[in-house]
Specification:
Order of helices and strands: HHEHHEEHH
Number of strands: 3
Shape: globular
Largest sheet: 3 strands, antiparallel
Structural class: mainly alpha
Strand order of the largest sheet: 1-3-2
């Protein structure tokens, strides 16, 4: 593949017109005549990767909504399933939100019977949250739904296909991390 830095019309990184189900401005894979052929493939791959990610997220959010909780509340349940009991402040840090935002979600989850609050031993000011049986059952159902969506996404793929796909995505991620680090070093 040719080095995109040597071609002025290569992928610019502008994702502003990349909306799901909007084909009105689908020029992302139409390169100008002086653009290398490889850039069309790169743009198509990036576009399809983004579309697959958005579709996957939309399906997951739809399934979560069917469970009767908001996405952020569901994220809290999933976090608690791996980190309980957890202090509300720790959850806030993990999600990079305010403690009051966690308190609002916790109140709704507690009202629904999905979590319970306890006081941290030795610190009566700190609320700790943990799943109830009902909350644990919702987490179990969620994981089953996620597995079904993931299986549908990779329907028709062999194990080897998935391994190769994973390898390529990992390499692409590594390339982006290196690119970002190199750019950061040049700014200093």
């Amino acid at each position: 593949m040719k080095d995109p830095k040597n071609h002025p019309k290569t992928y610019s990184g502008d994702r502003s017109n990349d909306r799901p189900n909007d084909r009105s401005n689908d020029s992302s894979i139409n390169c100008q005549s002086d653009c290398p052929e490889e850039t069309n493939s790169i743009k198509a791959a990036i576009r399809l990767l983004g579309q697959a990610d958005r579709e996957h997220r939309a399906i997951i959010e739809s399934k979560v909504a069917q469970l009767g909780v908001h996405r952020t509340q569901h994220m809290m349940l999933m976090y608690l399933s791996k980190n309980e009991p957890a202090a509300q402040n720790d959850i806030a840090r993990a999600f990079d939100v305010s403690a009051s935002a966690v308190a609002v979600s916790a109140k709704k989850l507690e009202s629904a019977g999905l979590i319970e609050r306890t006081r941290k031993t030795g610190d009566e000011r700190t609320n700790c949250l943990k799943l109830t049986e009902k909350g644990a059952e919702m987490v179990k159902k969620s994981r089953e739904l996620f597995l079904a969506v993931d299986a549908a996404m990779f329907d028709g793929f062999t194990e080897e296909d998935v391994a190769v796909f994973t390898k390529y995505l990992s390499k692409a991620k590594q390339n982006l991390v290196k690119y970002a680090q190199d750019r950061e070093e040049t700014r200093e």
